[in-house]
Amino acid sequence: MVLQDVITLTRQLINDTNTGGRWSNTALTNLYNQAQQEVIRDVEFPRARLTTSTVLNQQEYPTPELIDVYRVYVAGQLLVPTTKQVLEGHQTQDYDQGLYTGNEPGTQTPGSGGPPGTQGSFTPAWNTQTPLAYPVSNDWGAPAPDAQMWFTGQRPRYYWESGVIGLVPAPAGVYTLCVDCLAVPDDAVNLTDFLIFPASFKRALAWYVVMQCRAADDTQGAEAKVQMATQMYERTMRKLRTDYQRYDGDQPRMPKLRTYRTGRQLGNNRWGGTGWGEW
User: pLDDT tens, 186-217?
Assistant: First the structure.
């Protein structure tokens, strides 16, 4: 699907098929760029995969504008999500000063994402962690220690904050950094530009543009037209959300959970028993 497809449908819905009329292609393209940002947030689809190369000892990497981050890999190794607060033990009131992590005294490695001027004693372990080669060797099984403050020997983690992805430990070499995410789409410019959306999104995108067009009118009955366009957009979006939030591709259906309940129910029929129950 290209931008022209959405613009053509929009013109039909607002009854303005003359490109030299009320709405120019440039104006409709600007409104479309606002529409795609709202639609992708509402449906959380389509998702993106970003890749780059790490830099020796560099901990933080700027990203394009992202809405959400789902998975981060370095050299193919899946990293555990975290935040700086968790790394420092805020959640457990430890407020790491390097006293309990075997990292005293600490020295901040050049390229660290820690606060400037970090040096000497009483420094959190995560920003003085020595860079390591990826994949990082560790003996941790499942579940991963994601609620503990950082200490050497854990599975590597990542944090996403203020437009950067941070890696702990920092990579001691050049590796592939891969981020699976929901990204803000690039603005469309030309009518021939390909869009990241499948064709099933065309009506939702067009109705959002129509809604903005109607909101810009100051004619009699404009408010009713805005409400109608809004209702049509929301109706279309409900269908898209249902379709894409339940989509699981070719993944196998998960087995039913088994519990230790001693009774079962199917519709209005109940019966007792011993051992494992299935609900």
Answer: 999 999 999 999 999 999 999 999 999 999 98
**Assigned token pair, 57:** 């000892």
Integer Cα distance of 262 and 276 in angstroms = 7
Tokens, residue 234: 């929301």
| Residue 221, CB-side half-sphere exposure with 13 Å CA sphere | 2
Instruction: Note whether 79 and 72 are within 8 A (CB).
Output: yes
Beta-ladder partners of 157? 80, 168
pLDDT at 167 over 90: yes
Taking each helix axis as running N to C, give the angle between helix 3-14 and helix 202-216, from 0 to 180 degrees, rounded to the nearest 10.
50
**Which residue ranges make up each domain of the chain?**
3-46+196-244, 49-183
End-to-end CA distance of the chain: 44
Radius of gyration of the chain (CA): 26
**pLDDT (average), residues 253-279:** 45
pTM: 0.80
Q: Are strands 77-78 and 66-74 parallel, antiparallel or unpaired?
A: antiparallel
User: Read out DSSP for 15-46?
Assistant: T---TTSSS-HHHHHHHHHHHHHHHHHHH--S
Short-list 43, 7, 47, CA closest to 28: 7
Residue 9, Cβ density class (10 Å: 0-12 exposed, 13-18 middle, ≥19 buried): middle
**Cis status, amide bond into 143, omega within 30 of 0:** yes
Average confidence (pLDDT) over 72-82: 97
Buried b (16+ CB within 10 A) or exposed e, 249-264: eeeeeeeeeeeeeeee
The DSSP element (H or E) to which 253 belongs, if any, is: none
Residue with tokens 């609620």: 147
- What is the pLDDT confidence band of residue 20, given thresholds at 50, 70 and 90? confident
